[in-house]
Amino acid sequence: MMQALPIQSCANTQEDQSPGRLIVLTGPSGVGKGTLMRSLLQRHPQLYYSVSVTTRSPRPGEIEGKNYYFISRSKFEQLIAKGEFLEWAEFAGNYYGTLRETVLNQVRSGKLVVLEIELEGARQIRTFFPHVLSIFILPPDFDELEKRIRGRGQDSEEAIARRLCRAKEEVKAAGEFDIKVVNDNFETALNAIETALFNSNS
Ligand SMILES: Nc1nc2c(ncn2[C@@H]2O[C@H](COP(=O)(O)OP(=O)(O)O)[C@@H](O)[C@H]2O)c(=O)[nH]1
Ligand SMILES: Nc1ncnc2c1ncn2[C@@H]1O[C@H](COP(=O)(O)OP(=O)(O)O)[C@@H](O)[C@H]1O
């Protein structure tokens, strides 16, 4: 299995010498990425989770600066114009983006930095950082995926339909990723991600 390599970019930038590593975790909405991330962070406090910026409204219980930075569309567009994002994408009617400086600073300081982002953003990251370790989380099947989205009880019918529609497109891209993990049994999936992050030697 492939190990996460030191971050590199095609251009001759400071990132070339960086000792840090960048990991991208992608998969359809409701597959369990957030839940897997929370467990990973609890078990491995040395991981640095990149908090994204979004124009989506906070869900009950979500905390500003912990789950996301929640901002308006006009503010988001200003940040795009200023080049503040390492990557950004529109998903289910909202913008989501990764703050460039925060992530690059953490990588430069030697951290293992994890981005939990959707497919288009993951593709952008792979373009700039070909040596990123990319992980795709798959659902056991679409019925189970729908159950998980509904079970979360956080999304409107319209949002559920949009997420399911996009999920069917997204899973077709799983083959582009270094590692594919089916999140059926939670512990098994978590262990597979841990192996990819910490224990692979080849
Ligand atoms: N490209 C990109 N996608 C993001 C970012 N942050 C979160 N996402 C993705 O946006 C999608 C929607 O996230 P969210 O609204 O929190 O819904 P949920 O993942 O279905 O709970 C998910 O696939 C996230 O992984 C980001 O900074 N950039
Ligand atoms: N392996 C699993 N088996 C059953 N339910 C799961 C599993 N992993 C996650 N879930 C549940 O699925 C729902 C969606 O998970 P979540 O982490 O919010 O997904 P995502 O961040 O990918 O949108 C949550 O209610 C979560 O508890």
End-to-end distance: 6 Å
Regions with pLDDT < 50 over 5+ consecutive residues?
Answer: 1-17
Helices and strands: which structural class?
A: alpha/beta
Superfamily at the CATH H level of the domain at 14-50 and 111-199?
P-loop containing nucleotide triphosphate hydrolases
**Quaternary class:** single chain
Give the number of DSSP strands: 9
Indicate the CATH topology of the domain at 14-50 and 111-199: Rossmann fold
The helix count comes to: 7
Order of helices and strands: EHEEEHEEHEHEHHEH
Which percent range fits the helix content?
25-40%
CATH architectural category of the domain at 14-50 and 111-199:
3-Layer(aba) Sandwich
CATH class of the domain at 14-50 and 111-199: Alpha Beta
Which range does the strand content fall in?
15-25%
User: Going across the major beta sheet, what is the strand order?
Assistant: 2-7-1-8-9
What is the average per-residue confidence, as pLDDT, rounded to a whole number? 89
* Main beta-sheet strand count, sense and barrel state: 5 strands, parallel
Cα-atom radius of gyration: 16 Å
The kinds of small molecule bound in this structure are: guanosine-5'-diphosphate, adenosine-5'-diphosphate
| Shape by Cα distribution | globular
